[in-house]
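We treat protein structure as text, and this decision shapes the records that our systems exchange. This encoding replaces a full spatial description with a residue-level series of whole-number codes. Below, we set out a record of this kind in full and without editing:
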Amino acid sequence: MKAFERNRSFTQLIEFEIEPHQQEALVSALSAQTERLAQGYDGFLSASVQASDDGRRVLNYLQWQSREAGEAAFERFESGEQDFWQLILTHQAKTVTFGSFQVLSSIARSQDNALHCNLL
């Protein structure tokens, strides 16, 4: 792997398909879990929990400083440290889709209202 590739941030997307009556509880559980991630895992950058308007999907977006940081955190989840699989069972997820991505470009608005684009 090239040096510049190792320095790119890394994003994990986890999409849950659920029954609408489970959405609020799953959002709450993922929000609490995400707060624990922010406090306890090296390399954590940002996260969000998003809910679809139809109530049938929840998206958990996690961004890390590196692929290694994100994969290390997920390995701890799989080993039961944060009981991720129990969360899936408790909220009766029909499907769970995992995606991993390297960030190649990003755009953000600064406090002075300017747009900043980072191409890596």
